[in-house]
Amino acid sequence: MWIARADAAPTPARILCPVDTSRASRRALKNALVLCRKFEATLTVLNVQESMLALHMPITGFSKERDRASLSQQQSEFDEFLAAFDLEGVDWTKKVRHGTTHKEIIAEALELGADLIVMGTVGKTGVERILVGSVTQKVLRELPCPVLTMKEEDVIRLRVESTVASIEEHFEQGQQLLDSGLLAEAIREFDQCLLSSPTYAVAWEGKALAYERLGQKDSAAAARVTAKHIRETLWQHSVEAEINGRSPLSGRETKPS
Q1: Whole-number CA gyration radius for the chain
Q2: What are the beta bridge partners of residue 40?
């Protein structure tokens, strides 16, 4: 669920992903990385480390030494959590804050100027969750910026993969219909590809071939021009990316601070 105010940025440039090493946080970070790569956004992975001293000392006599050990363990768990992810190609940094989780998430979002917070709907569980309440709900009440929450595993990636599979299926159907001489039907299948991905050059080329066989020369020429323009644009972008990647002045930082 993506919750945003009316004045929210149309695409995120700065994404904040709070994590607590839970399964929900793993889902959130996986999808945050998908969004960062899609929108070329920067990513801040935030871990809020809460002191156990104030919560437990009145009940169990929780000592300062045990509290320091607990915070050290939280840091180790955070580092181990991050080590499991492929962060290559993403401009990201890790951040640790100390305090009440939902307050620190909101504070970091405001200081960062985040365009989007990506977080799981369930983090801490059991008695711990009863004591601290739902962090996500508290962040949503403040809504410092748009918030994306999810319950499903890899929900964004699965939808992207489903869309890609649908495009490929329509293209294969179009090719088969084209080979069978069912030209109008082939054009409809290629159009289905282009509804999902208007820059799918091979679908434009398939349409051009179908129009040529139908004798519609103007439509065929227009489709071929579009396909050529798409391919030239993509080639130019790939060359620019390669040149930028080789330039010592243009590399973006991809390692945590």
Answers
A1: 25
A2: none
116 and 230 both lie in a single domain: no
Q: Extract the tokens encoding 175.
A: 């090719």
Tell me the per-residue pLDDT of 121-145, one tens digit each, with 9 for 90 and over: 754 444 334 333 478 788 888 888 8
- Look up the CATH number of the domain holding residue 182: 1.25.40.10
Q: DSSP assignment of 111-142, as one string? A: HHT-SEEEEES--S-HHHHHHH--HHHHHHHH
Query: What is the domain range of residue 99?
Result: 2-153
Residue with the two structure tokens 């030209």: 183
Separation of alpha carbons 152 and 150, rounded Å: 6
Sign of the dihedral defined by the CA atoms of residues 151, 153, 157, 162, in that order: negative
Q: Is-contact 146 47, C-beta < 8 A?
A: no
- How many degrees, rounded to 5, is the angle at CA 76 between CA 58 and CA 23? 85
Residue 48, classed as helix, strand or coil, is strand
Reported as a single tens digit per residue, the pLDDT across 46-77 is 998 876 554 444 444 455 666 677 777 888 88
* Residue with token string 């329509």: 170
The distance of Cα 63 from the centroid of its chain, to the nearest Å, equals: 41
Residue 254 lies in a domain: no
17 - beta bridge partners?
45
Question: Minimal CA–CA distance to 117: which of 197, 2, 208, 216?
Answer: 2
Structural contact between residues 257 and 94, judged by C-beta atoms closer than 8 angstroms: yes
Residue 149: strand pairing partners: 119
What tokens appear for 153 in the block?
Answer: 């595993």
pTM of the model: 0.54
